[in-house]
């Protein structure tokens, strides 16, 4: 056993763990952070869009040396069928501001950098070490961890579980349930490398400007899911994900979906000639508010994806992870500075502070996320994308058909696919989801 005792042990060096370790180390707490990967970020997968506001709260001067790719000036939302897409695009020069709002990043580089900030602040980071289980005393209080190293038991006043979506440690210690297939999505992602000038010409970009494409429709074969394409400096991240329960039911495989997405005539020219250097698959928690487990107990708190803190509707996860990690670190510091013990009662402060933040306020809006995502998924991800694309093509194609006939054809195609009642019902459900 390592005799040295720590104020806090953080399990995992992803967004949530690094935020917690940095926050506590900056305030003078003695922190040990344990990461199973070769280095922080080596195991982590993200699109990846980074939300600057939440990072700025942790590292106000991050723009000076963080490994950022492109700042985003344009967002494209595409509704796709087999051969077409209908898009809603927002591009603004306002995003070329002095302190841009969103950036693309590469997690392997970013996590290493954020971890270096935690280490500079005094956190001890131990990589290539897996925490096998939590140590609990006779009353069930978490008092440390057991790692896969020789004599690898270490003790601390509190353990921060930042172990990501699978949350195996928490489940093993009966602190939370295992996530169910309708509460998690499985996403696959590839990195396509291209010369910088090619990316800038294809996406109409100058300097470090970047574009994001979020795509839904027949690409997910009727399942609830989305595709994405993000521009980095010299690469393009492209991926797709759907709920695990949907994959189970449909028998579709994620790599087949990604293959079809890449071959779509709207996507293929954007990645043409690229060299694929990385392929990754990862789960994303999408259960919403109702899936959030108990967030604290005697001697422990849980943060980030391990706490299911992910907003699938808005494609946000890393910012919820960073914020929950930071808030957990601040709460632990407050308890410690009052010289109070790390009991369940005292650590409830973390939950209270999280409730007051955007994290829980946003997730409360989507209490039953799987229910919401599953509403008429065949209609929203198959029927409507096909109808909308057909209608738009009918609208722009000039072929001598009188406009009044074109309008009648379009209305008829919608009403024959869904009754008037069905159409109004779906419109109502869609509006309610976004209210
Ligand atoms: C394909 C994809 C695209 C995404 N795109 C975006 C996006 O664009 N923007 C966004 O905000 N979010 C996005 N997300 C979500 C985002 O990646 C997560 O919300 C975020 O990574 C969660 O951070 P975390 O620190 O909680 O978990 P993770 O980043 O998963 O970190 C957990 C860490 O714990 C370590 N670990 C696990 N178990 C142990 C153990 N027993 N012992 C030691 N170490 C352990 C792991 O190795 C890992 O380093 C995306 C996710 C995926 C899969």
Automatic annotation (TrEMBL):
Belongs to the ETF-QO/FixC family. Pfam families: ETF-QO_FixC_C, FAD_binding_3. It comes from the Bacteria. Signal peptide: none annotated. Keywords: FAD, Flavoprotein, Monooxygenase, Oxidoreductase. The keyword Oxidoreductase applies. Residues 6-184 form the FAD-binding domain. GO terms for molecular function: monooxygenase activity. Its cofactor is FAD. Residues 369-435 form the FixC-like C-terminal domain. This is Protein FixC. Could be required for the formation of a functional nitrogenase Fe protein. Probably accepts electrons from FixA/FixB and reduces a quinone.
């Amino acid at each position: 056993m390592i005799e040295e005792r720590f104020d806090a042990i953080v399990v995992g060096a992803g967004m949530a763990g690094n935020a917690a370790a940095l926050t506590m180390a900056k305030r003078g707490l003695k922190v040990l952070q344990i990461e199973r990967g070769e280095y922080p970020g080596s195991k982590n997968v993200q699109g990846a869009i980074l939300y600057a506001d939440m990072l700025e709260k942790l590292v106000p001067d991050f723009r000076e040396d963080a490994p950022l790719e492109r700042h985003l000036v344009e967002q494209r939302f595409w509704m796709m069928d087999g051969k077409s897409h209908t898009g809603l695009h927002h591009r603004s020069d306002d995003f070329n501001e002095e302190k841009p709002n969103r950036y693309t990043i590469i997690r392997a580089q970013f996590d290493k950098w954020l971890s270096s900030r935690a280490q500079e602040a005094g956190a001890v980071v131990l990589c290539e070490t897996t925490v096998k289980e939590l140590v609990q005393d006779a009353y069930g209080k978490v008092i440390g961890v057991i790692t896969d190293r020789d004599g690898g038991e270490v003790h601390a006043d509190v353990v921060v579980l930042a172990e990501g979506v699978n949350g195996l440690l928490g489940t093993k210690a009966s602190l939370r349930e295992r996530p169910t297939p309708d509460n998690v999505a499985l996403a696959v992602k590839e990195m396509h490398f291209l010369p910088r000038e090619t990316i800038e010409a294809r996406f109409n970009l100058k300097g470090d400007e970047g574009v994001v494409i979020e795509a839904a429709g027949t690409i997910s074969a009727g399942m609830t899911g989305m595709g994405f394409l993000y521009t980095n400096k010299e690469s393009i991240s492209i991926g797709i994900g759907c709920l695990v329960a949907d994959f189970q039911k449909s028998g579709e495989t994620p790599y087949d979906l990604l293959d079809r997405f890449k071959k779509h005539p709207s996507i293929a020219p954007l990645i043409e000639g690229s060299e694929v250097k990385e392929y990754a698959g990862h789960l994303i928690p999408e259960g919403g508010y109702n899936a959030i487990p108990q967030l604290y107990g005697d001697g422990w708190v849980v943060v980030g994806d391990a706490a299911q803190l992910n907003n699938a509707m808005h494609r946000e996860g890393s910012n919820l992870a960073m914020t929950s990690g930071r808030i957990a670190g601040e709460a632990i510091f407050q308890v410690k500075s009052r010289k109070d013990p790390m009991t369940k009662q005292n650590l409830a402060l973390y939950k209270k502070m999280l409730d007051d933040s955007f994290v829980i306020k946003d997730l409360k809006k989507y209490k039953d996320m799987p229910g919401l995502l599953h509403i008429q998924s065949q209609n929203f991800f198959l029927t409507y994308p096909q109808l909308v694309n057909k209608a738009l093509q009918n609208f722009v194609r000039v072929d001598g058909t009188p406009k009044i006939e074109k309008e009648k054809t379009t209305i008829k195609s919608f009403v024959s696919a869904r009754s008037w009642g069905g159409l109004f019902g779906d419109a109502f459900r869609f509006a309610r989801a976004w209210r």
